[in-house]
Design a protein that fits this description.
The complex is a heterotrimer.
Chain A (H helix, E strand, L loop, with lengths): L3 H19 L7 H9 L5 H34 L12 H15 L5 H24 L7 H26 L3 H9 L7 H28 L3 H6 L4 H23 L5 H13 L3 H26 L7 H19 L5
Helix pairs in contact in A: 1-3, 1-12, 2-3, 3-8, 3-10, 3-11, 3-12, 4-5, 4-6, 4-10, 5-6, 5-10, 8-10, 8-12, 11-12, 11-13
Chain B lengths: L3 E6 L4 E6 H23 L7 H9 L4 H36 L11 H15 L9 H20 L6 H25 L2 H12 L7 H21 L1 H7 L3 H6 L4 H23 L5 H13 L3 H25 L8 H19 L4
Antiparallel strand pairs in B: 1-2
Helix pairs in contact in B: 1-2, 1-3, 1-13, 2-3, 3-8, 3-11, 3-12, 3-13, 4-5, 4-6, 4-7, 4-11, 5-6, 5-11, 8-11, 12-13, 13-14
Chain C lengths: L1 E10 L2 E11 L4 E5 L6 H8 L7 E6 L2 E2 L5 H5 L2 E4 L11 H6 L14 H13 L15 H14 L4 E5 L7 H18 L2 E5 L3 H7 L2 E6 L2 E6 L1 H4 L2 H8 L3 E5 L6 E5 L5 H9 L1
Parallel strand pairs in C: 3-8, 3-9, 6-7, 7-8
Antiparallel strand pairs in C: 1-2, 1-4, 4-5, 9-10, 11-12
Helix pairs in contact in C: 4-5, 5-6
The chains are: A mainly alpha, B mainly alpha, C alpha/beta.
InterPro entries (chain A): ABC_BtuC-like (IPR037294), ABC_transptr_permease_BtuC (IPR000522)
Pfam family, one (chain A): FecCD
Keywords (chain A): Cell membrane, Membrane, Transmembrane, Transmembrane helix, Transport
């Protein structure tokens, strides 16, 4: 009856998306929301819905789904419960490259940002994967987490240095640096969705192989899989998913760590279920967090990345405390 | 045992064993650090030869140089050395306690806590309270975060690995909180806070910064050195340390407190300069072996040297831009870290 | 003298052992045997105050160890945990020096006595020539000897060891156990250890303690205690016990699924 864990959340997702469109600094009746979709009349409310609220909700859903899947895939590839695009520095790498491109080279535009983000994600992700797979048994959770934290610290330092030496628009850039889906336009989603969709497709097609890989490289090879190829495809999907997400929303933290753990608790260890469920749960989380972020400091908005970063802490605590004493 | 020197005083009952190698290495590093300080003081838009710098220091220099050296450059140089040394020692303690050569105050959340303290100080009290109080704010921040970290990791004692994992999660959350305060505050304070979060020792002075930092370090350094023996036993693991009669949890708490105080004081003055706490102790172990009696002083000297050189490069190579020194230390530190991971791949 | 009285320890609501009494004979080698997860390591660790039991007491020379200062215990009892890890680059000498920790203070960090005892510990374990080597560069057997040297430097009448022979090949296992035997016979130290190999346990132990599900199933001289019924009960293993051809101690020959007939035929030829 695992299908329940897919259907119920889909309904919930639809609900939160509608709420996200309807509620905010100005609340809009659900009826008007519906009207604006079927009978658009260019009124003020309809304009807000069409140009601000709907893109925002859809972007949040897409980014949440992508980051959750990327986290689940990374956790298999590194055989490490604490892996996710944010903990391993993939997001920070993508963010730094966007800043470098935007501030130093003066390039802008969603297409350019997306490509640069993919390059950044590939570079930092590549380093982390390389590090994650060296050694006899791959890396321990602590080691890979430290590696990721250092990568993040490295890119964060460079990014801040870049901002300070080019000094302008701190507030906007910072809001982007913690990750936010506010003030986005539909065109931005249009620019990144092919990459996101490609990443999701690869991950879903790979799920059967991930089940085998989860038992270890040697075991996977013994069962006739080529672990190298599975990892390469997995890494490609992570780069597309994380790079695409960062390009539109900035480096939003910890969605990739929170969701796979919840989902594994609900549906077990089969990645054919984990991945689609992660996508839906990730979307719910980010849309809901974004909705919540509008109410914390009304009328100002807290970037949604701050919300997810704080929500992630209990999960770190849980994972760290669950682990057997190892000293 | 010709490699060692035993010092024993019959009267006081004092006895200690020192490796001769440590004395040599420390002497060489001290000379190097002094040399770098003098050369670095001479570098800048107005070049002053090392000889002339020494003359100024001895009080017989050119009066024109006097102002540049004593007022403008020397405070920054001295601060670089002090901040570098305290971050390095804080890192050495933490690596001993956590028993992982890859740990450092900046990844375990201590530095982030200190910088959140400072950012809050700038935004909430900005202007109303003298800047001299900032170390209190950042040490409080570091302590608060470490306290939270301790509580969250406590489960029949604090396990070092649990401490690191939770520390990383916590530090990411705290960093985004700091960003949030910067975003929601007035624009003119943003640059100052951001500089602080990156780590820079630009524009420090004798009467504000050096005087603020020195008393802390004058107490904390000797106190730490006295703990070397305890660090040595902690490094063998909880079971072995308890078996040898060490009070593991209590001593761990004191050691972490020392590390927090050192890192907090350094961050208050220099901002969140990263990776020195990782690199210096590691190099020190390579040079002076694994005993903390040697690692602590050698780390301090290496930390001072690393920050001196980073700051020198940061302020001279990119003229007219004064790049924050923290960017430089991160740029050297991250590749160094990758190398460490590669070296430790089978452990 | 080391004794456990009514010892009980649980993780959460699951008892590892409950109201367990045990007395370790002085000056003898005592070995704990039992299947995985029977609680033998936990028992050893709680007798060395590494774990705190919920009920009961551990008495060391007539005093409850929970009332003793941990340094005081460290001068009477040393424990070598399973698979200890030395920090990178630590030399053998630096490691063995740590054994003097319970005798040192801020002031007195390296007395002549410390120096003599560390030298003796290195000699006793045959590590003198390797004292400047780093611990991680040693072979498994040498590394274990270095750790034993450290516990020797602690100069305790009682030494506990948690599986001192794990991860060692046969030669190194014998090397380590012979060293412990020598320490026991020459210096009259009480040795308590957990061993997995029943045959080696029988050969070296003066006193064997068989543990099953947190209960002491039997204890005494190996020759008197170890029989087919006990092994079947404790390890759930059918076997035949024959006298060791060299030492006369019990030797456990397990039954397996291999065809006994074929084996006998091979033996006949």
């Amino acid at each position: 009856m695992k299908i329940i864990y897919l259907i119920v959340p889909l309904v919930v997702l639809a609900g939160v998306v509608v709420c996200s469109v309807a509620f905010g600094v100005t609340d809009i009746p659900i009826g008007t929301v519906w009207e604006s979709i079927i009978h658009y009349n260019a009124s003020n409310e309809h304009l807000i819905i069409r140009t601000t609220r709907i893109p925002r909700a859809l972007i949040a859903a897409a980014v949440g789904a992508c980051l959750a899947i990327a986290g689940a895939v990374m956790q298999v590839l590194t055989r490490n419960p604490i892996a996710s695009p944010s903990t391993l520095g993939v997001n920070a790498g993508a963010a730094f490259f966007i800043m470098l491109c935007g501030l130093s080279l003066g390039i802008s535009g969603q297409q350019a940002f997306t490509w640069v983000a993919l390059i950044g994600a590939a570079l930092s992700g590549g380093i982390v994967f390389l590090l994650g797979s060296i050694g006899r048994d791959g890396m321990t959770p602590v080691k890979i987490t430290l590696a990721g934290a250092s990568m993040s610290a490295f890119f964060a330092s460079l990014t801040q240095g870049l901002m300070l030496t080019n000094g302008k628009m701190f507030d906007q850039i910072l809001a982007w640096l913690v990750g936010s889906v506010a003030g986005r336009e539909m065109s931005q989603l249009e620019a990144v969705w092919p990459y996101m969709a490609a990443g999701m497709a690869i991950a879903l097609l790979l799920s059967r192989h991930l089940n085998v890989l989860a038992m270890g490289d040697d075991m996977a090879q013994g069962l006739g899989q080529s672990p190298g190829r599975t990892k390469a495809f997995g890494a490609a999907s992570v780069i597309l998913l994380a790079g695409g997400s960062v390009a539109v929303a900035g480096p939003i933290a910890f969605v990739g760590i929170i969701i796979p753990h919840i989902v594994r608790y609900l549906v077990g260890t089969d990645y054919r279920w984990i991945l689609p469920c992660s996508a839906v749960f990730g979307a719910i989380l980010l849309v809901a967090a974004d909705l919540g972020s509008r109410y914390i400091a009304m009328p100002k908005e807290v970037p949604v990345g701050v919300m997810t970063a704080i929500m992630g802490v209990p999960f770190f605590v849980y994972i760290a405390r669950k682990g057997r004493r190892t000293s | 045992m010709s490699k060692y020197k035993s010092i024993r005083s019959a009267g006081t009952g004092y006895s200690v064993l020192i490796e001769k190698r440590t004395i040599w290495i420390s002497a060489v590093l001290l000379v190097l650090t002094m040399g770098t300080m003098i050369i670095s003081t001479g570098m800048g838009s107005l070049y002053i030869s090392p000889m002339n710098v020494v003359k100024v220091l001895l009080g017989v220099g050119d009066p024109a140089h006097q102002v540049v050296v004593m007022k403008l450059r020397l405070p920054r140089i001295v601060i670089a050395a002090l901040v570098g040394a305290s971050l390095a020692v804080a890192g050495a303690i933490l690596q001993g306690v956590i028993r992982n050569p890859l740990a450092s105050p900046d990844v375990a959340g201590i530095t982030e806590g200190a910088s959140l303290g400072a950012v809050l100080f700038i935004f909430l009290l900005g202007g109303t309270v003298p800047v001299q109080w900032m170390p209190i704010a950042s040490i409080t921040g570091a302590l608060a975060v470490t306290g939270l970290l301790y509580v969250l990791s406590w489960k029949r004692g604090v396990d070092p690995l649990r401490l690191v994992l939770i520390g990383i999660g916590l530090s990411a959350a705290i960093k985004s909180l700091s960003y949030m305060f910067i975003i929601s505050g007035p624009m003119q304070l943003a640059e100052r806070s951001l500089t602080f979060m990156t780590g820079s020792i630009y524009g420090v002075s004798w009467d504000k910064d050096v005087i603020t930092l020195l008393p802390w370090l004058a107490i904390l350094f000797p106190l730490t050195w006295l703990q070397a023996r305890i660090l040595n036993i902690q490094a063998l693991g909880d079971d072995t340390a308890s078996s040898a009669g060490a009070q593991v949890q209590r001593q761990r708490f004191i050691l972490i407190l020392l590390s927090v105080a050192l890192a907090g004081a350094a961050v208050a003055i220099g901002g969140a300069i990263t990776f020195i706490g990782l690199m210096a102790p590691h190099m020190a172990r390579k040079l002076a072996g694994a005993s903390f009696g040697s690692v602590l002083p050698v780390s301090a000297l290496l930390g001072a040297l690393i920050l001196l050189i980073s700051d020198l490069v940061a302020r001279t190579v990119f003229i007219p831009k004064d790049v924050p020194a923290g960017v430089l230390t991160a740029a050297i530190g991250a590749p160094f870290f990758m190398y460490l991971l590669y070296r430790n791949r089978n452990r | 003298m080391l004794e456990a009285e009514g010892l009980g320890l649980s993780y959460g609501d699951k008892y590892i052992f409950n109201s367990l009494d045990l007395s370790i004979p002085k000056g003898k080698i005592t070995v704990f045997i039992g299947s995985n997860g029977c609680g033998k390591s936990t028992l050893l660790r709680s007798m060395a105050r590494l774990l705190k039991p919920q009920n009961g007491t551990v008495m060391l020379d007539g005093t409850d160890i929970s009332r003793m200062a941990t340094k005081e215990i460290a001068r009477k009892l040393a424990i070598l945990p399973q698979g200890p890890i030395a920090p990178d680059g630590l030399t053998v000498l630096q490691l063995v020096k740590q054994g003097r920790y319970p005798y040192q203070s801020w002031l007195r960090q390296w007395s002549r006595e410390d120096e003599r005892i560390v030298r003796e510990a290195l000699e006793a374990t045959g590590m003198s020539g390797l004292s400047e080597q780093s611990v991680d560069s040693l072979s498994g057997g040498q590394r274990q000897r270095a750790w034993i040297a450290m516990t020797l430097a602690q100069q305790t009448p009682i030494i506990l060891l948690d599986e001192p022979t794990t991860y060692l090949d046969m030669t190194h296992q014998i090397e380590v156990l012979d060293l412990l035997y020598e320490m026991n016979r020459r210096d009259d130290r009480t040795i308590v250890m957990v061993l997995h190999d029943i045959n080696l346990a029988c050969r070296y132990a003066d006193h064997i303690v068989a543990i099953r599900a947190g209960q002491i199933e039997a204890e005494g001289k190996p020759g008197e205690v170890i029989d087919e019924q006990l092994i079947e009960k404790v390890f759930r293993l059918k076997c035949e016990i024959i006298p060791d051809p060299l030492y006369g101690t019990p030797l456990c020959i397990p039954y397996t699924n291999c065809s006994l007939k074929a084996v006998k035929e091979v033996l006949r030829r």
